[in-house]
Amino acid sequence: MDRILKGKIKGKNTTKVVRFGNVKSVGVGNVGNFIKNFREISSRINRSRNSGFYIESISLQLQLIDLWLKELVKEKTGKQFVFGEKYFFGDVIKKSQQLLPPQLYEKVKEFNKIRIKAIHNFIYGDTDYEEIKSVSEKYNSLHVEVFQFVVKEISKGIS
User: Fold this and answer.
1) How far is CA 121 from CA 36, 55, 63, 118, in A?
2) Which candidate, 62, 29, 150, places its Cα nearest to that of 101?
3) End-to-end alpha-carbon separation of the chain, Å?
4) pLDDT tens, position by position, 146-155
5) Please, what is the Cα angle at 136 between 56 and 126, to 5 degrees?
6) Which of 22, 48, 95, 111 sits a CA distance of 20 to 30 A from 79?
7) Which of these, 42, 47, 49, 103, lies nearest to 68 by C-alpha position?
């Protein structure tokens, strides 16, 4: 069953639905699970942060930002990310540099740099959980900002 990934833009008086690519192209195996998980991911990000599970909230945000940046690159350049191939998040960010406003690009780049320092160095003692909490709180809505920008960009020219 082919399903199309959709995004909504809510304006003052209207809501516009934008159709992205087929969910199979981003590696979706079980479409039912994908839809269920996708619908609840933002609430899971907030619940994990509110419960003190900052690594989980950051990791879930990373997955959403990665998905939206890949969609942006695909829609604007035609570059299809092949599911199953390994793409580092930093490489996805670089590919989206010319497509994002400079301020949002810098914010995503900074999020990745601080995320790597906070999470990857935690086990080695180069950081502590308070720093991870700080990263989670500082970037608590970055996934929403990226989503809103991508939906607006992709919707340009769609009637």
Assistant:
1) 33, 12, 20, 6
2) 150
3) 26
4) 988 988 888 7
5) 85
6) 111
7) 42
* Mean pLDDT of the 2-15 span: 60
Looking at the chain, the whole-number percentage of residues with pLDDT higher than 90 is: 42
- 101 in Cβ contact with 43 (< 8 Å): no
pTM of the model: 0.82
3-state DSSP call for residue 5?
A: strand
Q: Give the pLDDT score at 81.
A: 73
Residue 35: HSE in the Cβ half-sphere, 13 Å Cα cutoff: 10
Which candidate, 132, 141, 146, places its Cα nearest to that of 46?
141
CA distance 94 to 84: 20
Domain count, the chain: 1
- Domain with 18 in it: 4-155
